[in-house]
Amino acid sequence: MLADAGFDVFIANCRGNKYSQGHADATVTTDNVKYWEFSFHEMGVYDNPAIIEMVTNVTGVRRMYYVGHSMGGTSLAIMLSERPEYNERISTAFLLAPALYLGSTLKYLQPFFKSVNYYQYSFNKFVHGKLDAYKSLKQAVGRRPEEVCLREEGACETIEPNGDSVIISSAHFSGFCGNLLFLGGGYDAPQTNYTTFTQALGTFPETTSTKTLTHFFQFIKSNTFCQFNYGFSWINRLKYGKDTSPCYNLDRISAPLVVYWGQNDFFIKWTS
């Protein structure tokens, strides 16, 4: 729709997913725990600015519109607060359920995250910083997630990172899988396009770092919007020069924002 309306549309990938697993240092591969030493903080401080500069280099346009869903809103808020010079590069940012302050709506989960850093350190002994949710789900059920959720067969096409085209069965989503999705995002069957969502399951859930997930858990635990807390005061002092992680200063954001939230969304309410 945006392209048909005359916009140049650039669709970015978050670092770590299967379409974006390169590294400036060729010796640091996805099997190396150092590769996964990032969260959405790095996406906001480094990746979003790099994308903006790339778009400017391609189009010659300095100011642009930004659309971000969930973590896409998180990284945008981080960029505008930590790199405030980029506020003037955003004409308007449209944030769809941005994930910033999660503790107010997920207070019932806070007791589970008292030792969230311990969970990450323990988990990393087995996965080395990499959280491959798609692969884990596929191994658990023995089939692709998009195939598990089929009720009637048809065909659709997905494109692999190497450019290969893969035809998978598709057509109608099963009610069981639909209800599982609604548990996470809230019930909204009338506005759910099950056919296209079957295609989306070819890339969802995707690979990310355990640090990214832990950082979100910290948001829930503290109901603050702060940088990653390493769980030990001496590590925080090495990283930040203080015992605790600094919080993002949203007062630095001056770009126009339009914020959307879903009435049935369990995670992001208007109070968030």
UniProtKB/TrEMBL annotation:
Residues 2-270 form the AB hydrolase-1 domain. This is Lipase 3. InterPro entries: AB_hydrolase_1 (IPR000073), AB_hydrolase_fold (IPR029058). The keyword Cell membrane does not apply. It comes from Folsomia candida (Springtail). SUPFAM superfamilies: alpha/beta-Hydrolases. Pfam families: Abhydrolase_1. GO terms for biological process: lipid catabolic process. Keywords: Lipid degradation, Lipid metabolism.
